[in-house]
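Notebook entry, structure prediction.
Reason for the run: the old model in the group folder had no record of what sequence produced it. Starting over properly, with the input documented here first.
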Amino acid sequence: MKLNIRSLRSHPLLSLLPATQLRELLSESALREFHKGTVIFREGEPSKAIFLLLSGRCQSSHQGERGAEVVEEVFGPGDTLGEREMLNQEPYRSTVRVISRCVVLPIQGQPLQELFEKYPGVGGRYFQRVASHLRLLRERREKRGGTGRVVAMISLSPQLHQQAVAERLASSLHGLAQESVLLVEMTAGTQHPRLQDWPRDEVRSDGEFCYATQSREHERGFHHLHLHTGGDEREARLIAPLAGHLGRHFIDVVLDVGPSVHPTITLECLVQADFAVVWLEPSVRCLYDFKLLLDQIAAHDLQGQVKILPLVSAGDFGGVEEFSAALDELQHPACAFVRGAPLGGASAFIDRARTFGQQINSLARLVTGRRIGLALSSGGAKGLAHIGVIQVLEENGIEVDAVAGSSMGAFVGSVWAAGHDGGGLERCAVELDSRWSLVRLAHPVFPPRRGFLRTGRAIKQLHRFIGDVTFSQLRLPLRVVATYLDSLERVVFSSGPVAAAVEASIAIPGICVPVTLDGETFIDGGIADPLPVDVLREMGLERVIAVNTIPTPDRLRQCLDVARELCEAKPPPRSVFRTVGSALNRHLNYFASGNVLDTMLRATNGVQTRIAEYASREADLVLRPWNCDSHWHDFNNPRKYIALGRKVAEQSLAELKALTTPERHEKHPARMATAA
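New structure, fully documented this time:
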């Protein structure tokens, strides 16, 4: 590419050099264009050059613990890459990868060193500028984490009110970041401002936001710009540098690409964005169009770097389950099934299903990397404490983006994900607050060859709460954990009927008859994974709250010591009736302390403890609603456990709210909160 000395002087570092010295330095340099996904240099490689970023965006990262990639910074026009390493004559400290097509000017270290030796004053000013530049980068990282994210949005659903949805997303992003967010409404037209005029407008802006006078501030706090495009395919090459320019001035940029925009420009917006949001509806035509779009993206995105987020507007259409399976076959599963999305002519902020706003907020958290997952452990009646935790989350406006549960955690999580709020969950639990209610749920088996109880009546009760809902019809993404009986492997249910998955997850081995689904036999999910934190991590959730009702051996030992001390200090009163009742309980009640079922459950809990403790280390915050009088079969005291969950959550309210804050979140060892 041809060098233009005048345009290069706008770069902060090159502006230090007089024209003669600049030409001398650039005589052996040439502009290079890199496509999305290209690695400019890798961590550990010898530093031989610095790279001046003139347009587009790059991302630096380093290898963290367990080989995971840790993103450090996003760079835009005006930034310099590798300057610190080259000046210190050390290997590159990070890997720099292109995230939108960029133009870079490499300057080899030897010519730069010779220039500094020839002109010492230039070298001194250069080093001062580098130090100042590094300080600004550090401040920018602490404040906003680099250049802004770019989200491109298109709709393959003709009934969706795309502009209204885009405005809602921009509003959510602004609410999360509390910083400047820009919505760019792109339509075909000849009015100003025009995309084809961007190079001229950018030069005139002298580094400032070039559309400052054409944009307006929306009543919801974000900025709005209406940008018109023509029918010239050559305009597509302006998308990458435009995105880099906009990202320098806004924390988040939403490109609302209308259906009238030229297909080549639309495709380039999707390819160059950090996130490509594609709205769909469950129809054969929409599925066909999505396949074509994927083929077009694959042809342009050779590195496979485009993050495609299919959102299915499901509230007003049928065939959701089949459409979801078709997306799975395309290896692009639905990011969310959105209900209540505004249709043509609707207002941006009318939430027809009462959950549309929450789902768009979840999309905004996905874009900003602040999604929250809730892992609910097994634990029998002790798992009713999950309800108290959920109530505290709802009362304090802490929205959860996905829930994963095992055994009792799956039961509670499914009812919540189906649409019941914390109050509704408590009403469901209180239905079991009498001994006879619990007896009615028991379904004895005789002879007890494979288990003492069947799970059918408990699942019939679950059907009363949620109906025949499938996973794709849930308000909240749900994962249910069960265990294959034959191999003892973990299985995670994410599709099909919810009640059937929960039935497999609650089949306690030895007590309940194993559940058979599609020819496979399952037992309680707590056997393989009693606290499914890693299920949420595998879904990509950045922050995880774990609710663990499984006590540790140390905690059990403390309770035994306390009970022994109380018994010695005040022995229980003796009577004939108490003695006879205790003897009958030991001989007739298989669940009594020390009897076969109680022993089996205790042995199972011993295995679960280690697994749950290991899983807790991967969570950001662990809540432990448990006390000494907690028992797995104590379903007739639901309010006791709900109050316990509330108590632990309220004690950790500051930590819970910290997970939602806009500050850049760093992974740290899980913090623990335990009931006193």
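Summary: The chain is about 40% helix and 20% strand.
The old model has been moved to the deprecated folder.
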